[in-house]
Specification:
Oligomer: single chain
Order of helices and strands: EHEHEEEEEHEHEHEEE
Radius of gyration: 18 Å
CATH superfamily: Endonuclease/exonuclease/phosphatase
CATH topology: Deoxyribonuclease I, Chain A
Helix content: 10-25%
Shape: globular
Number of domains: 1
CATH class: Alpha Beta
């Protein structure tokens, strides 16, 4: 059975015989950075990276496969798989041309990374900082010279309470790990559903969410600490004044009313900032039959 090459932050995760499956592994301390020439591999080209909270990967597999065929993203971060490890549709995705690593969880959570025409190299399958945390919310891989993370941050409701405390603690763990990644010198994309609407521009005009964990001052402050001066919010950088949403709740007719929130973000390390070419949201995916309540958010990087 081939093993996963771990660069640069290796856990004790392993691959399946096809190299596609990632088994839940022990979160260990980061290994010494070993990037060297990996920071700028030969033949690197324009790359389309997307994040998509699929809200049950097996139920929405036809939607996902159709979008992959039409959009042909190079790298995709998936969240909310809602599938046990053995139930991830790796074979169907391989037939569509995508290698994958994933960490499933029965009923809830679950994250994955897909790469078109190649196998992601698993580097970490859980967020460090709390060995007791068993929720499947973070996975990280090296893909063609870029470290990409798929992130599904806690919702945090109801607040105040233990779930909100967990959300804030989780985001602080993410901030610390992001700093470790930044110091490695690797080009990094942190992509996922952060369950944060960072500003009032990222939520439709309403008072109905005032008590929700997604927009609390503590949540937004945690987001600002994460982003700091070292990370670029790709969508907001290119669309500083535009209301772009990536999530529309199924309730209260919110999709037809365009009552959305921007919860899905792609953060770029400083060494990718100058390569930011385009960013946006494939909002039409939210209107398709059987759709997730999220639409894919994406970034295109130039060489």
């Amino acid at each position: 059975m081939p093993s996963s090459r771990a660069e640069p932050f290796a856990d004790s995760s392993s691959s399946s015989a096809s190299g596609a499956a990632c088994l839940a592994g022990r979160a260990g301390p980061p290994a010494a950075p070993r990037w060297g020439t990996h920071a700028r591999p030969a033949g690197f080209r324009l790359v389309l990276i997307a994040t998509f909270n699929i809200n049950n990967v097996n139920r929405r597999l036809p939607n996902l496969l159709d979008w992959l065929a039409r959009r042909r993203p190079d790298i995709v971060a998936l969240q909310e798989l809602k599938a046990a490890q053995a139930d991830f549709p790796a074979d169907a995705l391989a037939r569509a041309g995508y290698g994958a690593v994933w960490r499933g969880q029965k009923t809830w959570n679950g994250v994955a990374l897909l790469a078109r025409g190649r196998e992601p190299i698993l580097t970490r399958d859980r967020l460090p900082g709390d060995p007791a945390d068993v929720q499947s919310r973070y996975i990280e891989a090296a893909i063609n010279g870029i470290v990409v993370a798929s992130i599904y941050a806690p919702n945090g409701n109801p607040q105040p309470g233990p779930k909100f405390d967990y959300k804030l603690a989780w985001m602080e763990r993410l901030r610390r790990h992001a700093a470790t990644l930044r110091r490695s010198g690797a080009p990094v994309v942190l992509a996922g559903d952060y369950n944060v609407a960072p500003t009032d521009l990222d939520i439709y005009p309403t008072r109905s969410w005032d008590d929700d964990a997604l927009i609390q001052p503590e949540t937004r402050a945690a987001w600002r600490r994460l982003v700091g001066r070292s990370w670029t919010d790709a969508i907001r950088t290119l669309h500083p004044d535009r209301r772009l949403y990536s999530f529309w709740d199924y309730k209260r007719n919110r999709w037809p009313r365009d009552a959305g929130l921007r919860l899905d973000h792609l953060l770029l390390s400083s060494n990718l900032r100058d390569r930011l070419a385009e960013a946006g949201v494939d909002r039409d995916e939210r209107g398709r039959d059987g759709a997730s309540d999220h639409a894919p958010a994406w970034v295109r990087l130039r060489d």
